[in-house]
Hints:
Layout: E1 4-12, H1 19-33, E2 37-43, H2 50-60, E3 64-69, H3 75-85, E4 88-93, H4 105-112, E5 118-126, H5 131-147, E6 156-163, H6 164-173, H7 180-187, E7 191-198, H8 214-223, H9 228-256, H10 265-298, E8 305-309
Parallel strand pairs: 1-2, 1-4, 2-3, 5-7
Antiparallel strand pairs: 3-8, 4-6, 5-6
Amino acid sequence: MTNYEISVVLPIYNESANIAELLDRLRTTLSAISESYELIFCADPCTDNTLDKILSYRKSDNRVKLIVMSRRFGQQAATMAGLRASKGKAIVIMDSDLQDPPEFISELYVKFSEGFDVVHARRIKRLGESRLRLIITHIGYWLINKLSNTSIPRNVGEFKIFSRRMVNSLVSLNEYNIFLKGLVSYVGYKQVIIDYVRDPRFAGSPHYSQLWGSIPLSLNGIYCYSNKPLHLISLLGLGTAASSFLLICFFIILKIIGITTISGLTTVLILISFFSGLILFSLGILGEYIGRMFDEVKGRPQYIVECEYL
C-alpha cells in the first residue's frame, strides 16, 4: 500500500557530520515535488551519535524514520530493509554522504513520471575520488559485464528511483547474497539512464577501503549472476590437457629424429607447479559457488532488525 508520493531510502553508518546538511537539502528538494514523502534511514549500529541525531529530527518530523540492524550487515542489506519498509509510489535510494546530490532527485522524478520503472543516475564525473578508485571501479564493471549473464550499466551506482512494482519484485526475491545492481537488471521492466556529476563527500571519510571494499562486491556480482567462471574451468582443463598432449608429441618426435634432451628436475617442478596452481584456482572458483549455495540453503534472513521507528 502506498501512503506517500516519494520514499527516500538512505543506508547510513557513522555519518553524524552529514545529517543536518543532508536533511536540509532533502526536505527542500522533496517539498518542491510533494509534501507527501518519507525519509527512511537504515543503519548498522553506529559508533558516533548518528542515530541520536536522526531520532532528534524525528521528534519534530515523523516523516523521518529509522531502522537499526542488530549488527553490521552492510549497505546492501540495509538498503533492502529500507525498500521493504517503504510506502511510496516512487522510491529513491541514495548514499548518505552527499556525494549523491539530493537536488538531482527532481530530475530523477521527472523522468520517472514518463512511465519508467527504474531511472538510473549515471556518474559522468566523480569529484573528489582518487584515480586508483576510478580504475578499480572501471575494472569491476568490465569484469562483471564480461563474466556475468546480467548486464550492469557502467558508472551506475546505487543512486536511482524505482516504481512500486519494481520494489515489490526486488523484495520478493529474498536472496541472501545481495547484489542490488544485479537484481535490478534481472527483474527488468522499463529502465532508463540519465547523467549527473557526483559530488565529493561533504564531511567525514569513507567507511571502506578504496581497493578491498569494491572487490568482494564485484566478485559477488559475478558469482551470483553467472556460470561463466565454471565454463572457464572446463576450458582451462581442456587447454592444459591439450598442451600436455602436444608436449608429449614434441618429445616423441625429438626421440624419433635422434635429438637427445637433458632431463632434469626443473621441467618436472615447472609442470607440477603449473598444474597444482591450475587445480587450486579451479577449486577456489568451485568453492565460491558452493559457499554461496551453502548460504542460500541455510535460509537465514538477509538481516536482523534490532529496532525501528516507522
